[in-house]
Amino acid sequence: TETxxxxxxxxxxxxxxxxxxxTNSDVLQALLASDLKVLMACGGKGxxxxxxxxxxxxxxxxxxxxxxxxxxLGFITGADPASRLACQCRVLGD
Length: 94
Prior knowledge:
- The chain has helices at residues 2-5, 27-33, 67-73, and strands at residues 8-12, 17-21, 52-54, 83-85.
- By secondary structure, the chain is an alpha+beta fold.
- The strands form 2 sheets. A two-stranded antiparallel sheet has the order 1-2. A two-stranded antiparallel ribbon has the order 3-4.
- The protein is globular, with a radius of gyration of 13 Å.
């Protein structure tokens, strides 16, 4: 559908910025495209956890966790249900 192809709004806190991202783009690429400094030691393969982010709202607007992402998040102290790897979650909605 046409709505599915439209860019989606991604709101970033605590820096109070919003950006439009292509549907199905991963959060890491959206952050990097906005000149935000994000660590990614493994190059976006989902194995290092340096791009760990917390999704405060809209978890249901992202692709589900992959088995690799689940495994990597399991090694992070302080990971919780809001935790995602920016390289592994893709934006499906605002």
